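Lab meeting, action items carried over

1. Structure of the two-component assembly. Owner: GW. Status: complete.
Input record:
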Amino acid sequence: VNIPRKNFRSVFKWGDPNHEEILDSGIRRVLKEVFGLSDDCFSQPFLAGERQISLNKASALAAPAIAELREIVGPENVETDDFSRAYHAYGKTYFDVIRLRLGMVDTPPDVIVYPRSDQDIHQIMSWCSNNGVPLVPFGGHSSVTRGLECPHGGVSLDLTRHLNQVISVNETNSTVRVQAGIGGPRLEQYLNAFESGYTLGHFPQSFEHSTVGGWVVTRGAGQESTCYGKIEDMVRAIRLISPVGTITTKDYPAMSIGPDLNNMIMGSEGTFGVVTEVTLRIRAYRPQNVRYFSFIFPTFEQAIQTMRLAMQAEIGHPAMFRLSDPEETDFSFRIKGYDRKIDDRLLRLMGYHPRKRCLMYVTAKGDPDFSNLVERKISKLARQNGAFALGSKPVLTWLEQRFSSAYLRDPLMDAGIMVDTLETAVTWDNLINVWDHVRQTIKKRSPAVAMVHLSHIYETGANLYFTFLATMDRDNPIDDFLQFQASIIQSIQQHGGALSHHHGIGRMMAPWLEQELGPDALAALRALKKHFDPHNIMNPGGTLHLD
Amino acid sequence: VNIPRKNFRSVFKWGDPNHEEILDSGIRRVLKEVFGLSDDCFSQPFLAGERQISLNKASALAAPAIAELREIVGPENVETDDFSRAYHAYGKTYFDVIRLRLGMVDTPPDVIVYPRSDQDIHQIMSWCSNNGVPLVPFGGHSSVTRGLECPHGGVSLDLTRHLNQVISVNETNSTVRVQAGIGGPRLEQYLNAFESGYTLGHFPQSFEHSTVGGWVVTRGAGQESTCYGKIEDMVRAIRLISPVGTITTKDYPAMSIGPDLNNMIMGSEGTFGVVTEVTLRIRAYRPQNVRYFSFIFPTFEQAIQTMRLAMQAEIGHPAMFRLSDPEETDFSFRIKGYDRKIDDRLLRLMGYHPRKRCLMYVTAKGDPDFSNLVERKISKLARQNGAFALGSKPVLTWLEQRFSSAYLRDPLMDAGIMVDTLETAVTWDNLINVWDHVRQTIKKRSPAVAMVHLSHIYETGANLYFTFLATMDRDNPIDDFLQFQASIIQSIQQHGGALSHHHGIGRMMAPWLEQELGPDALAALRALKKHFDPHNIMNPGGTLHLD
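Predicted assembly:
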């Protein structure tokens, strides 16, 4: 990470802090229409965070303690300066960003340590256990669930500096073994560059700024999960270093050896120990075989019906299978100015009306005959459900900017616009119900944008991804946001949506976890936590509601 | 189950005790050739088990205790007679059968209770907790890992009498919710008979005599797992009643809500509590779309190569994907007398030689264009790897008798032939190594038959299923077998095969579990056990090496 400026903005900026994303005229136009913003809003950034960082919380670790850590990993791998502590205090959720914009660093670690090996981690963990010091694993900095915070200070264990290598690729088994601190692009490029060409196929929105370890401990999902699966479908083996010992699972293709340990470690969010190594299934990288196709549907219901039938038809799964609801569809039409073009008038004449129509983007991968079959079958189902085919271009355009929408949060917040996301998973029979009620909850705040898409599609249901925009309460931005957010989470839970499909729980969703799992299930997780971490040093302070 | 005769044979017989399977002339011929048996061996059954059952172990529960149980479930749902106790003492592994043939019932429950509801189970579990009485869940009676034994007596909780119903089918979600005591045929027939026609697609060898609960707690796999997955891939939600509370997971299609509870319960083999309800994904039942095809390969290596490439080619997965190694291939040729026919001479002329050639059976299901594509692609790969296509007939013949081979154990043991199986999972790069070494271990006993097949195929590896036949030591059949079996298990473990792919661990594999998982992983499972079952009443006595 290139961090040249030591101000708050350089901590909360998504990606390169030197590159400022700007809102194009199309977005500005829509924001003005929806929120009644004036041009002034775009000229003077609100809470720009340009103040130099200085923490009012001194490190709780005295010099001799820091010296002992330096002894373990070398002095160059220990940091205690204010910028590093602020950088490791939060992830990237809206709550984190707004706090940084206000100059609040509530949960900094006392020290950042960059381990060079498993051996280093063992020693650091022993040191933390012996001294009762919290230890919080840190990867790509992209948590959106307050998973990286250090509410009790302690050590932020940053795996990205040294433990970021591919250990080996096994071409016979189609697996790759990596250190947990490796980032998405480095791993994907490494695999693509192989003579035979491989891909992991895991492309979360945070792809550029997240690590394998982070994906695994939160149970992440990528944009092409419909064919490649969630990260838990790719994982074959894990090494977990916990305060009471090390678990190294084996990379068997399947097994019947008691409760599944990989699935016990995946989702543990740093509360059981540190994941240091992962073996993942890989697939062939064959960009030449990819089919890109897209549709517009007259209604959301018809588009959902198409997705459900496609997933239950046993025709093979598409790679990316993505549907925007009417509001997201209209929003994307409007910011691109399509709503003023002749094409749009034609679409309306054909029966694809604003506030009802929906965009679907699809890719199919694999063997060329396989991807062709998937395209042919889905196209037929789409036509039967009233869709009009829009060809490959919209998908290719979307893919070019697939990671860019997250960058817009910075200029949006500069303009005083709150933007955040919440997501859930639902069975098919409950999809419209959850979508409708959660949208109603968001819309209680007026004006508000509530855009929804489905992007991870299964035989028995799908995810729902809510993006909501509203004007910030400039006098009380934090409480205002937290109340709004809580109402949405509550609405998801009340109507039977999962607390999370792929973001995880962290400290943010933790207050709702007991209601989600039931007290007896939470008690089982707490028993595991107590076993792995008897002195409660691993990522303590409310993650997964375990302490 | 129809159990008219109250002798030992009616306990250990596979299936209907009134129907005696016979060894046809082909099998007899081969057995005579391999083991030098005389005709006498087939006329006078060895240890036929026709003695009436009487246990020399009285029930440890006094009359007032039994009366309390009768109070809970009704007197008709409590059994204490010797036959019922013997019937619930063992599963169906060779060790169980040989003990019953010898009239040994080492591990009978004191009482068998047939609960009518979750409420009954809660009450029985409380009663057991309060009285320190073991509680062992009992399903289809088909455990091959000594998972059902009651070494400390107590209650055998038989779910098959009452808790055997489909609760609901959700056609939108493609799921079925069942009580755990339902058996394979009842569930499958129920689903097939639906107007739209559904299938679970789970056909283990024990299909006719096993239950959903048993599949789930052992992580079972069926003959078509290559497309339908193992049972853990089908499960969406589970209810577990444990001594410290009840966990009811939700049927979301995917989630990111901490460690996965379904995967913590699956594989727990009755040691955490009783699984009472399961929600499973279902698929369309479309027998008219199935493609059946088969091949003979010149070598095992070329056949394995074909399977590996097919699974890694992203062409869609076949449903059944089954390969016999050279010895299993030759054995099946010989018992059918093919080795004496003209067809076989032709095959030899074409280069498919005994002791090298291998049979592969495949089915492809789903949409007709999908199953056609899978057949076409696999056929091409097979041809490229030297195979000769044998058409659909061998597969159809095999499917007709798909569940019958297990029945042969009874007449084989009557003839003094020991027959049992062990199974493992391996990555592709270790497959030949494990196959070769384990075969060598079996062949140290001479004469011995060592037949191997692959029947559960994955992108990163496959299972290996070993069937071994040898003559019994008529003077010391138990120790002789146990030593032989231990040497095979040890060989699997030593060469890097999984301790089990789908049979589970039970008490049989438990002594090898710590070596398999490592002490720190086993400690985590023990912590969970201690949490769920603080008084150690759930299936105690060594299952999963947890106590």
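2. GW to write a short summary for the group page. Key points so far: Chain B has a mean pLDDT of 96. The first helix of chain B runs from residue 9 to 12.
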